[in-house]
Fold this protein.
Amino acid sequence: MGRAYDPARAMRERLKILEAREQARTETRSVAEGVAESVSLAEARGAEFAKAPMARGGRETPYRRQAGLDWLAAKGRITPRQKQAGEAYGALYRRAGVVGNIGSTLEVQPGGGLSAGPSLALLLKTAAGRARAEAELGELRRRLFGQSDLVTVCDLVCGQELTPREAGSGDREALRIEAVLKVALDILAMG
């Protein structure tokens, strides 16, 4: 037979459910406050974020940090052709800068067996890709006439994906970085 209805037990179960809901709401508010604080600090350092409108049901949507080129393009400060040239530079910069993929020769497993180390074929392919990216990046830097300002702003904004404000130490420096970047991107887009 079924249990008899126990009002005290039903009330305790209802209280547990309400407490769990309130705890979840408190944790959600705490996480949202932490995210807002992190975003605020990053924005103070010059980072830019895109935030989608609130989702149906009142749920928060995630922040998405904007890369420097994306932010400049969204503001209409660079052309699509300049952005494309910058993205190509950035992809090579990041590919050439991959460090740590090639470990000790003791980790290499010639047959690609079931051990912890990568196979020799994978190591050779990674090294060849990185060498090719370094050579292509070197060619782009030569097209920038080896000018340290041009190369540096491309490394910071295109390669490291910083906004001009993040890359500079203030608004004035950010404007200078943006101007130098536009010249560099024009040169890269021509070739």
Summary: The chain has seven helices and two strands. Residues 7-66 form one domain. The helical segments are 7-44, 68-74, 80-96, 120-143, 148-159, 164-167, 171-190. The mean pLDDT is 85.
